[in-house]
Specification:
Blueprint (H helix, E strand, L loop, with lengths): L2 E2 H8 L2 E3 L5 E2 L1 E2 L9 E4 L16 E4 L10 E3 L3 H12 L8 E2 L4 E2 L4 E2 L4 E2 L4 E2 L4 E2 L4 E2 L4 E2 L4 E2 L4 E2 L4 E2 L4 E2 L4 E2 L4 E4 L4 E2 L6 E2 L5 E4 L4 E2 L4 E3 L5 E4 L4 E2 L4 E2 L4 E2 L4 E2 L4 E2 L4 E2 L4 E2 L4 E2 L4 E2 L4 E2 L4 E2 L8 E3 L4 E2 H12 L1 H27 L3
Parallel strand pairs: 4-5, 5-6, 6-7, 8-11, 9-12, 10-13, 11-14, 12-15, 13-16, 14-17, 15-18, 16-19, 17-20, 18-21, 19-24, 20-25, 21-26, 24-27, 25-28, 26-29, 27-30, 28-31, 29-32, 30-33, 31-34, 32-35, 33-36, 34-37, 35-38, 37-39
Antiparallel strand pairs: 1-3, 2-7, 22-23, 39-40
Amino acid sequence: MKKSIAEIAALVGGAVAGDGQKLIGDIRPIEEADADDLTFVSNPKYFKWLKTTLAGAILVPPGTVAPDKNLIAVADPYAAFGKLLAVFYPVDHGPAGISPDAYIEEGASVSPEATVMPRAFISRGARVDKGAVLYPGVFIGRDASVGEDSVLYANVSVYARSVIGRRVILHSGVVIGGDGFGFSAPGSQNKKIPQVGIVQIDDDVELGANTTVDRATLGKTWIGRNVKIDNLVQIAHNVVIGENSAIAAQTGISGSTKIGKSVIIGGQVGIVGHITIGDSVMIGASSGIHKSIPAGMVGGGTPFLPFRDWLKVEVSKAKLPEIRAKMEKLLRRVEELEAVIHKNREGEP
């Protein structure tokens, strides 16, 4: 596929500076790009590459000047770069249709415009809408539903009555609707509490490989519209995650916690149950969250601290050996002074 710089600019709403008729055939990193390639630069620390790159076209922020280069100025070069990657490298799931090697129980409803690959299993009462793609090994439980244009990659499991919205992407190994971790008398009898709720995943959600979302004990575990979740994340029973939130890998969210809208959570964060994280909160990686966080807070650590306090604590950690050495020296000095005082007192008449 080749497109002119002018065509590319039109796709992303950009303004051309240079030769708009030049053809571009690929997208490559700025340090590797050649004369037929498109690249981008958005972070000022990479502007130095503008002088040396051989790229045929460069996505840049407005106001960028680079003599003898073909520039496409856009408000967000990184977002434009992502949009163009989808144009130059479209995902091909193959032709629509239901493989004769898929197993579909009587009573399931599968659109003929869906793509169902070999060894997918669709249970009685389940619904798969048009444009949905089910890769080999996908399991759809009884009375579950998969919305239009959603993609479930190999070996995804969607347990009974789970609701998957439109344009949802579930990467390989995702499990939706497994039992929540509910037991009475934990640590002794461990009597299982039946988990009879559901999972609801709204439109445009994406879940990374091997992420798990447990069904609710009662009611629903709910992931809101346009939430993006990385690989190896655990979402426990009755958790609610507000729309547009983003959660990085290896995070665990305990039961009945409510995550607000547009929340950003770094990797390896642990969050206890039955608390509330307000809208637009940002949590740094490897934090331990033990209580609710009000809306708009930015920070991290264990326990969670506001951003400036968290930075002070992190800086202090690196100085602990030095502080310890000084403390030990001070203690020895105090002991010496106390010994002198004691000796002087003994010499008093």
